[in-house]
Amino acid sequence: MEKVPPCGQAGIPEAWVVDLGGHAEDVYREPGSGGYRQHLRVGPVIS
Q1: pTM of this structure
Q2: How far apart are CA 41 and CA 44, in angstroms?
Q3: Contacts of 16 (CB under 8 A, 6+ apart)
Q4: In sequence order, which residues have a C-beta less than 8 Å from that of residue 20 and are 6 or more positions away?
């Protein structure tokens, strides 16, 4: 995900990306100078 590392570098505490094709969500936490240090994939999304 190209836009996620700059969000972490900017200090945004958490970013969520919805993967519609993969029926999942990617959660990024613990921002730092290189992007996010924690990545968690949650799925499938139940509606």
Answers
A1: 0.79
A2: 9
A3: 25, 26, 27, 28
A4: none
φ, ψ dihedrals at 6, nearest 5°: -60, -35
Written as tens digits, the pLDDT of the chain (47 aa) is: 677 889 899 999 999 999 999 889 999 999 999 899 999 999 975 66
Q: What is the 3-state secondary structure (H, E, C) of the chain?
A: CCCHHHHHHCCCCEEEEEECCCCEEEEEEEEECCEEEEEEEECCCCC
pLDDT digit string, tens, across residues 24-36 = 999 999 999 989 9
Domain boundaries, the chain: 4-42
